[in-house]
Write a structure and sequence with these properties.
The chain is an all-alpha fold. Helices cover 82% and strands 0% of the residues. The relative contact order is 0.05.
């Protein structure tokens, strides 16, 4: 204790230990929060990439279908 007070020494020590515990855990909690944020951002980027790929595949399929229809429609006897 730094100086004598009217509060019981055990209570003062308990509060001090609690404060030290909170201050000691803060960096670990901050890093845990950071890791969760990074993981969420990374997974969202992967999800967006998959959605983009699916959209591109749909466009490619539509173009291929349109081209096949144009080729088949130009065959003799197909009017």
């Amino acid at each position: 204790m730094a100086f004598p007070t009217s509060v019981n020494d055990q209570i003062t020590d308990s509060v001090t230990q609690s404060n030290v515990k909170v201050l000691g855990e803060a960096p670990a909690q901050a890093m845990g929060s950071l890791y969760q944020t990074i993981a969420q951002a990374t997974s969202l980027a992967a999800q967006n990439a998959v959605a983009q790929q699916q959209g591109a595949n749909n466009v490619a399929m539509a173009v291929a279908t349109r081209c096949v229809n144009a080729l088949v429609g130009s065959l003799p006897g197909r009017e």
